[in-house]
């Protein structure tokens, strides 16, 4: 397997210079937005082999255009807490690119949210959504609101205030938000209620990730985690490996992590660890998923409580230590930059065979290089975690038709979509001279779809 492209031919030299030039502009225009710069850099470097072979994209200045959000909305979100104090948070929505369809992407509620985080997520979303093959553009949003420790009433008041501003910018054919970190079915429900009240219309397709009773899709909750495991299983099988009998480490214990664990276990893997933002648990006998679900989905407790119920397990403070647990397959499903070069090296030394990213940009650029250079099978997030947004698009389709499909039907479509993403990523990697490098393959395959649509639609 080849690491990220080495510049060799003259055409690649020209492409490399062009990419570096545009990246300098991005850095100057977006100072201090380091996560956004990182996401751009990763994609730009992967595109060098494409530009060397097909200079048309350079001619149309697609890079210069694609890094500028079509619209970036920021707003204040005032609300009153249970003590009667007035609080104010920041709200964001980036409508990044609409070449392929209405803006689509989640909302994140976490204290670390700022314009850099939202822009990196929105930028990634453009290419991820393109890879699904569905008619959706790229967007993202959120707030620095911290839902942890808030009462349901506080969450309702906050989300209502958030939607009171956001509603004028979204719509089923305009921009369709969904969940992400800190935003699940409860928050989506409150936001949907407020949107419906303000619009005076029941527009089911304005948000996805809704509860089943009012337009939600079966299998949306499971989609990101299941899709990740379907994708990684394809990659493993292509290389003579399997989840069956493998030891797996999953970081996080939220929506993506829980359903990645569930599907990996169904495929016969032993999942020995998961985490939250305080620390991680190691259960050498294999995690009891019912306990994890009860603690995190129902009681909203900390993962450390697991060891009180299962005394054979151990709890460790801190997040990065989880990557020192020897495993065959690592599935980072918590947050950005959770695997740095040191953690990647530790994984390699301990014999990891595959890394599949459930989170968005969980590996630093250096970490991804370490994995690729050491022959680890590497499934980049924008391909491997696309199952969530893919089923969101299926939810939109069901809403448009005013009907709902069975769990089995949605799951089967999800499986097909993940298979197709794997195929298009591997094919692009082969075509552009980096066989086996899914980072290069996914970035090129996603970019080409968006760029071709942008060229066809003219300079708008
Ligand atoms: P959840 O809020 O359900 O869960 C997030 C999990 O990650 C929690 O266990 C949380 O711990 C942990 N976590 C969050 N922030 C940090 C941090 N800064 N440091 C350490 N741990 C952290 O979110 P999701 O499961 O939905 O999202 C997880 C990742 O997957 C994100 O990167 C998201 O962008 C990505 N993703 C999500 C999709 C979806 O459909 N939901 C689709 C594609 C990607 P704690 O409980 O302590 O906060
Ligand atoms: O990062 C992601 O792809 C998501 N959080 C899901 C977005 C969506 O619109 O379902």
Layout of strands and helices, then pairs:
Blueprint: H1 10-29, H2 34-53, H3 56-59, H4 62-66, E1 71-80, E2 86-97, E3 103-109, H5 115-131, E4 137-143, H6 152-166, E5 175-178, H7 185-199, H8 220-238, E6 247-251, H9 255-266, E7 270-275, E8 279-282, H10 289-298, H11 306-309, E9 314-317, E10 329-332, H12 341-349, E11 354-356, H13 365-373, E12 377-379, H14 381-384, H15 387-401, H16 407-431, H17 438-457
Parallel strand pairs: 3-4, 3-5, 6-7, 6-10, 10-11, 11-12
Antiparallel strand pairs: 1-2, 2-4, 7-8, 8-9
Helix pairs in contact: 1-2, 2-5, 2-17, 5-17, 6-7, 8-9, 8-15, 8-16, 9-10, 12-13, 15-16, 16-17
Bound molecules: NADPH dihydro-nicotinamide-adenine-dinucleotide phosphate and (2Z)-2-iminopentanedioic acid.
The site of (2Z)-2-iminopentanedioic acid has 11 residues, from β3 and α15.
